[in-house]
């Protein structure tokens, strides 16, 4: 099932996409409701509205090797603020002061039920589904000494295009990032150092995750620069493609 959030005729709704038909999905429903319109008629929003976005850094073997980093003994976590979330086709705004803005294509895990001290082997019971993410980062702002500004500026967390509730094996998904027609990242979730179960178990030892919260699982090798005018796409097999355009914010 593909779960979406959308805007249509001035209202925001939650729906299920069946082919190119959007069905309403009331908050207490488990399946498609009345037809709201066609996909071409709606504006897709971020498919969830998280209050918490927990991210795993340096979680792909290829990126660790590329950067010459030591092999991690435990997940390296950081947060992105909810104000950073935007949906598919939304603009990613590069602040004028940023010297280097970077893309990081990632698999995002969307939580389906309250998760606290989740055993790794039961992680799937707490997952609603999966979507594509771009962990946009102001590289030079990392020098702040912490990553709040570097990771959480407005528009720095595109999510979408929908939540796919059935992806088969989430540990064997292809993750591809493109700038225009050029492939700049190509990897597989099988390269993760810590899998989804391990990450969810580690995070929820201390942080309770609620339905709609998001876990970003790390990015493959090939992280690079975004400049105004770039069209960046994150495609994950079995899910879909998240597409955004980069613009510049004036001083």
From TrEMBL:
GO molecular function, one term: metal ion binding
Presence of keyword Transmembrane: no
Domain of life: Bacteria
GO annotation, biological process: carboxylic acid metabolic process
Pfam families assigned: FAA_hydrolase, Rv2993c-like_N
Keywords carried by this UniProt record: Metal-binding
Residue intervals of the Fumarylacetoacetase-like C-terminal domain: 53-246
InterPro entries referenced in this protein's UniProt entry, alphabetically: FAH (IPR051121), Fumarylacetoacetase-like_C (IPR011234), Fumarylacetoacetase_C_sf (IPR036663), Rv2993c-like_N (IPR018833)
Residue ranges of domain Rv2993c-like N-terminal in the record: 1-47
Homology family: Belongs to the FAH family.
Protein name: DUF2437 domain-containing protein
Organism annotation: Amycolatopsis acidiphila
Upper taxonomic lineage: Bacteria, Bacillati, Actinomycetota, Actinomycetes, Pseudonocardiales
């Amino acid at each position: 099932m593909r779960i979406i959030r959308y805007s249509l005729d001035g209202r925001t709704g939650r729906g299920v996409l069946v082919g190119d038909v959007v069905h309403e999905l009331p908050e207490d429903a488990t399946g498609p409701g009345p037809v709201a319109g066609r996909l071409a008629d709606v504006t897709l929003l971020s498919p969830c509205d998280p209050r918490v976005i927990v991210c795993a850094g340096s979680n792909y073997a290829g990126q660790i090797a590329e950067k010459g980093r030591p092999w991690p003994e435990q997940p390296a976590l950081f947060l992105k603020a909810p104000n950073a979330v935007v949906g598919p086709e939304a603009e990613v705004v590069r602040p004028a002061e940023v010297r280097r803005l970077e893309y990081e294509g990632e698999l995002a895990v969307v939580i389906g039920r309250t998760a606290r001290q989740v055993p790794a082997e039961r992680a799937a019971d707490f997952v609603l589904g999966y979507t594509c993410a771009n962990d946009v980062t102001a590289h030079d702002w990392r020098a702040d000494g912490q990553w709040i500004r570097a990771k959480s500026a407005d528009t720095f967390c595109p999510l979408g295009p929908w939540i796919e509730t059935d992806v088969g094996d989430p540990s064997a998904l292809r993750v591809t990032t493109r700038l225009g027609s050029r492939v700049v990242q190509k990897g597989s979730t099988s390269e993760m150092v810590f899998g989804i179960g391990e990450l969810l178990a580690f995070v929820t030892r201390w942080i309770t995750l609620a339905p709609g919260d998001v876990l970003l699982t790390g990015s493959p090798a090939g992280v690079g620069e975004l400049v105004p005018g770039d069209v960046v796409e994150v495609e994950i097999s079995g899910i879909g493609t998240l597409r955004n355009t980069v613009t510049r914010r004036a001083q």
